[in-house]
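Q: Focus on the shape:
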Amino acid sequence: MIETMRINSTNRLFVALALVAGLLSGCADKELTEVRYLASATTTAELYSMDEQETLSVAGHFLRGTEVVVFPNCTERVEKVSYVKLLVDGGEFYAPESALASDKHSVVAEQRVWVRTPATILSNLNESTIAGFADKSAELEVVGYDSLRSDGTVATYKVRQGEVEGYIYGKYTVFTPEEAALRYKAEEYDKVHKAVKNSFGGGEAIGCDFYPVEKPTFEKNPMPHACYSLYLNSCTNVLKNIEAYITLAKQTKINTFVIDIKDNESPGYKADAMLKYSPTNHRRAGDKEALYRRVVSRLHEEGFYVVGRITCFKDSYFVKDNPQCAITERATGEPFKHNKAFWPSGFDRRVWEFNVALAKEAVEKFGFNEINFDYVRFPDRMTKVEEIVDYHNRYGESKVQAIQRFVQYACDEIHKVGAYVSVDVFGESANPGYTTAYGQYWPAISNVADVISGMPYPDHFSNGYYGIQKPWNNPYDILYQWGQRVQGRQAVTPTPAVVRTWVQAYNVMRHVDRNGIAYDAENVEKEIRGLYAAGLTGGYITWLASSNIEKYYQQLGAFQVDYYAEYTTK
C-alpha cells in the first residue's frame, strides 16, 4: 500500500528545487529492464514520484526486500545522487540507486543497531550456546543477518560488541539509540513497577523489561484450553506403570501428564546434554531412554498433552562438574551448600545452556509438547548469608533481571523446536508490593513465558495468611484469595502468560499441623474451584511427589470435573 508522505526536510526540498532547475537527465533506453530488490537501513525503502513539473516528491514506503522492475538506463541525477525509474505494484516510481539491491540477501543496509530489550548474544544458533549479553541501549555493529520477517525486520543479526561476536534476534533491536532508550508505555507501566519495593534484595522491578512478547501457537502442537494434569516422577516403577495411569486418567477429564526429566540428584535418563555439560548427571541417570520413548509415545497415542519437567538452579550434580558456575563461599571459594543442595548461580550462562539444551533434546527425541522449568530462582532464605556468598554476577544484573532473561532465552530457543515453555514460581510471588528475595517477580516472568505455574500449596501459607485461619484446612478460601492477587499481577503484565497452577495433592505435612486435613477428592476439588472462581482457568497440576496411584484414585472425583466448561459458560 502506498503511503503519501509530506516533504518536510531540507534535503528533499533541495532535491525538488534542483529538479525544477533542470538538473535531471532523461531515459537513454526505456526498453531495458532488470529485476532488483528494495534495500534500506530500516524496514522500508522510500520511493519517489515525479509530477508534471518534473519534481520528485516522496510517494510512499515499501518493505525492503520487495521485488521491483528497474529501468537501469532511465535515471535522474541530482547533486551526485542517481534516481532510477522502477515499477512496483503497478505503479511508476523513482528510487536512489543505493535503495536497490541485485539480490535479496543484500537488502539490509544498516551497519549498526541498538538494543531495545536486553538480550542474549548467541555463539551458535543451532546449539543455543551463549557468547555474551547485550544490555538495553547497547550499540551493536552489524556484520551479517539471516533473513527478513514479513514486516521487513531482520529475524537474526550477526553482530559484534567489543570482542564478542555472535547472533541476536532482531526483535530485540531498533534502528536508533533514542528508540532503544524508551520503555514500553512508560506512562502506564513505569509508575506501577517503580512503586514495587525491593525490600529483600531481589532487585528493582523497574529494571525488568515489559515490551510485549508474541506468544506462539504451534499448529501441529495445540495446547489445551485448560490442562488438567497429573504429575509423574521419573522412578522406573512409576513410568513402567504408565498403562495404569492412562486407565485412571481416561475415567476423568485429565488431559495432560507432567513427567520429570531432571530433578535435583534425580536425573531421568542419560541425555546427551548431560554428557556434554554434566557427566555426573549422566552417570547417575537411569538407562531409561527407551522407557521414556515408550511412555511419551503411549500418552500421545491416547491423546494426552505431555510436559517434561526440569529443575534448573538447584542441581548438585551440575555443581560437582562445574564448580566455577556455583554460588560459592567468599571465604573459601568452595560451592555454598543451601537446603542440603548445591546451587548453580542463576547469573551463570553455562547452566542456562545446559537446561535449555536438555529441554530441546527432550522435545526432539521424545516429542514433549512443553517444557516445565522448576527452581527458576535463586535460593530462598538467604538474607542472613548474602554477604558471605558470591553469585559470580558477571553482567551486574539484579536477581529479577537474571531470572526474566533466562526465561526469555529459554523460550526463544525452545520455541524453535516447536514446544511451549512453562515456569514454576512460588505462591508468594503473586503478592503485590515487593520483589521476592530469590528473584521471582510475577509480571516479569509472566510477560515472557507461555505458561506461569504458581505453587500456592495451602500448607505452605502461615496461619492467618490473607486473614484465613489454618489456610491448609481451608483450601477453597486460600486459593481463591491467592487467585485474586494473581489477577492483579496479570493485569499489570502487557502480554501475560497462561496461568496453570500446581495444587496440593498430598496430605497436610505433620510439622505444619498434626491435626491437619487429608487431601482427598473433596479438598483437591476445593482447591481447583477456588482457582477457577478467581478466574484462573488455565488448568491445574497435581503436586504429589510420590506419584502414588492409589492416592490419585482417592482423589478421582476431583479430576472428573470439567472446570473450564463449568466456569467459562456461566
Observations:
- The chain has three domains: 10-106, 112-182, 225-311+345-377+396-568.
- The first strand starts at residue 34 and ends at 38.
- Residues 349-366 form the longest helix (18 residues).
- DSSP finds 17 helices and 28 strands in the chain.
